[in-house]
Amino acid sequence: MNNKHSIICLALLAATVYLVGLIARSSYAGGDTRPLNEQLVSFLQDYIRIETTHPNPAYDKALSFLKKHALADGFTYQEVSLPSGNTAAIISFIGTSPELPALALNHHMDVVPASAEGWITPPFAGEIYAGSIIGRGTQDMKGIGATHYFALKELKEHGFVPKRSIHIFAVPDEEVGGFKGTKEFVQTDQFKQLNIGFIVDEGHASGNEQILDIKVAERKPIQIRITGKGELAHGSHLAAHNAIHDLVQFLDQIIAIHVSQQSQVGSKQPGELLSMNISSLTAGIKKENGHIALNMVPDSAQATIDIRVPPTMKKRDVKKMLDDKIKHYPDLNYVILAEAEEEPELKDFKTSLYCALSKSIEQFGLCPQPHYFEASSDLRFYQARGIDGVGFTPFAIADNIHGINESVPVDQLIRGKDITVHFIKEFCG
Length: 429
Ligand SMILES: [Zn+2]
Prior knowledge:
Blueprint: H1 3-24, H2 36-49, H3 59-72, E1 76-81, E2 87-93, E3 102-108, E4 128-129, E5 132-134, H4 142-157, E6 166-171, H5 182-185, H6 189-193, E7 196-201, E8 211-218, E9 220-229, E10 233-234, H7 243-262, E11 275-283, E12 296-297, E13 300-309, H8 315-326, E14 332-339, H9 352-363, E15 367-373, H10 379-383, E16 388-392, E17 407-409, H11 410-428
Parallel strand pairs: 3-6, 3-7, 7-16, 8-15
Antiparallel strand pairs: 1-2, 2-6, 4-5, 5-17, 8-16, 9-13, 9-14, 10-12, 11-13
Helix pairs in contact: 2-4, 4-11, 9-11
The chain binds zinc ion.
């Protein structure tokens, strides 16, 4: 063993001693005799090991795993069959005042794929390395689901009885848009009967050890394809009606908008700004050998743009802007290929939910920060129904959603659960 090895071994030993200390500080659970924090860690490790990766997520295994825990811990468990054939699960802790709007803690069961290349430990082994649980889903978002579940379990074991009911939702298909998951789930009778007034869904890891972000709004996607029509001509023809020229002139204006928004990053978060990324360009005449003909002007050209509309703007205003610009080019037109149907009303984010969560974060010596999310998640389906919702990932490590070596430090997992316990006591007690 050389010096470098000894240092690594000492570091790992120190991390292990620290973890044992953390785990020992927690209380003992009822059925499972291990300390609750130790159970939380194994729960997440086991959950990671269930490969809920698209295109064939093992939802049946994830559901029976959640069901087994919920029933053993004395919670109410129900499954909701969705029109797509998928299933969502609801774990409930019923309050003494069921007339109060209920709180839901939402997590999705599916994860994005991961190949083993580049990982310190295999992505679906759920192993602990240097104090962190490594694995696909640790941040996005089985780790968050684990903090939700163990917060409820700890409260229940300590005899806490909530006034408003609390439900944990485990939903499918978020990673492929949520159309066969939450979008269907919120339309079911079972969902409507729960009288959900508040929802906490995923946010993102803050990447700053002093701060935890609370996601208050998301951008709305609009994806379009623009087609330009011209005339097929020889490349030497000065008067050629060139489809590419019209398209490029139009795209120039799109780029100008995008760049002016980019220049505001710093004073604003990216999630508060409009982005218009050109995502493809297609034009040119191909010869039989597959090469582009250098001396031909094509009769059509196409581009696609991925537009993300911030919560401060309306989708209809962005479409009007596109219409106003494109009308100067009679041979260009665009079609919308996909867009978010949901457009939640922008309101003051400092709701009772936001304030209760902020207060709990501050109790742990951290600073809560409102966050405008660049992309979109299941939260939009709940917010579009008028439910007060935020996204909250209780981890202060660097955001590594969908990345290689996605991980969560064990101490932050436990603290995340503790913050959630505090928040539930504040908000539902
Ligand atoms: Zn997610």
